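> example.struct
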């Protein structure tokens, strides 16, 4: 008969549950340690494959003297070659401009005396003739000037009568000769006083219109281009109330940035157009290029004078102007897309032999109509990369 031993499962006094079985806990711990060991072993034995080495693109090779592309290489589909041509005179790109009155044939008109406007006889844009009334002004100052003239005339009459009387008495030996001299001096002073009063009135260039009123007259023929005068308005002597201009000739004024004004000079040919005047195009010489730069806008004023006998051009109309510039000696021109800029440097890729390109530094000028002038660094007839220069740049960067 087999005797089976049983384990005493009597609970320990003070505990409400039986104690865990030790053999099962040890088995779980052993499994966890085994898994960790296998993980570490796998990590140590893993080797990452090295990335493939970078190699040059097929058909293209970079070397010390430049970059070469094999005949039939796919890069030829991207590249476009062109030939540098000798630069010739050409029209610039259009610059914004505006029509202005020719100030040599314009006049600003104001009131010669302070006062109040009583009548206005003209309208903006109206054509006037020299001597035509523009507006009337009531002023106490003109009354004083007229009173001074009248007084001077009376004083002259008195002085003349006194001189005649003294002269007669001197001839009759009733008075000494020195009295005639003194009386003659008084007569001359009275004549001068009257002349001065008359000159003051004439200098006003107005016409009489009552004791204290006068009319201001147009100093020249022309159109009223500015008008800032209304009835009952008080005006001072230094106010500009009307501007008159002869529009048979006008100015075209353009403000160019400093770099754009380089090379411009008086006498150069200019072509003027205006979006507001369909079909209008006129050529004339540059009349003036400012010798100073505007300190705020950093621009240079350029002026062209145009004839306007038919009055088609109106002041303040928007315009565009182009300038015909001569090429610098030895300069060339290429497509603007051929020029590559790397910070302060500018360069192009020149094909010095079939399939071989050399990067060459150049000094570039301005861009006009998609073409750029090269002042130095490139000769006429040389072949350059017009499109795809960036591809060559990238390949050189990858080879470094």
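> example.seq
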């Amino acid at each position: 008969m087999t005797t089976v031993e049983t384990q005493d499962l009597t609970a320990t006094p003070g505990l409400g549950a039986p104690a865990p079985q030790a053999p099962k806990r040890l088995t779980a711990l052993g499994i966890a340690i085994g898994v960790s060991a296998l993980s570490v072993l796998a990590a140590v034995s893993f080797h990452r494959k090295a990335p493939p080495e970078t190699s040059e693109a097929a058909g293209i090779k970079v070397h010390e003297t430049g970059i070469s592309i094999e005949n039939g290489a796919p890069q030829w589909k991207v590249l476009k070659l062109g030939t540098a041509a000798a630069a010739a005179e050409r029209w610039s790109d259009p610059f914004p401009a505006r029509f202005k009155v020719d100030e040599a044939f314009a006049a600003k008109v104001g009131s010669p005396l302070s006062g109040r406007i009583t009548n206005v006889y003209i309208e903006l844009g109206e054509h006037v003739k020299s001597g035509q009334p523009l507006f009337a002004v009531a002023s106490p100052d003109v009354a004083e000037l007229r009173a001074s003239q009248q007084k001077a005339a009376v004083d002259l009459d008195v002085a003349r009568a006194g001189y005649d009387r003294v002269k007669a008495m001197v001839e009759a030996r009733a008075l000494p000769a020195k009295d005639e001299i003194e009386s003659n001096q008084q007569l001359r002073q009275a004549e001068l006083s009257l002349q001065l009063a008359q000159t003051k009135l004439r200098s006003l260039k107005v016409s009489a219109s009552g004791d204290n009123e006068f009319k201001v007259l147009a100093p020249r023929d022309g159109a009223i281009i500015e008008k800032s005068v209304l009835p009952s308005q008080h005006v001072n002597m230094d106010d500009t109330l009307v501007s008159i201009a002869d529009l048979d000739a006008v100015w075209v004024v353009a403000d160019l940035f400093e770099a754009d004004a380089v090379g411009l000079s008086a006498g150069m040919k200019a072509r003027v157009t205006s979006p507001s005047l369909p079909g209008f195009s006129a050529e004339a010489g540059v009349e003036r290029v400012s010798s100073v730069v505007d300190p705020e806008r950093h621009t240079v004023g350029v002026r062209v004078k145009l004839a306007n006998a038919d009055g088609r051009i109106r002041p303040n109309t928007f315009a565009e102007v182009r300038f015909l510039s001569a090429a610098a000696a030895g300069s060339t021109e290429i497509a603007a897309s051929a020029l590559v800029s790397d910070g302060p440097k500018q360069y192009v890729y020149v094909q010095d032999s079939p399939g071989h390109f050399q990067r060459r530094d150049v000094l570039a000028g301005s861009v006009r109509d998609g073409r750029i002038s090269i002042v130095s660094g490139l000769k006429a007839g040389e072949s350059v990369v017009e499109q795809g220069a960036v591809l060559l740049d990238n390949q050189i960067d990858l080879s470094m």
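> remarks
The domain at 89-133+220-326 is CATH 2.40.30.170 (Elongation Factor Tu (Ef-tu); domain 3).
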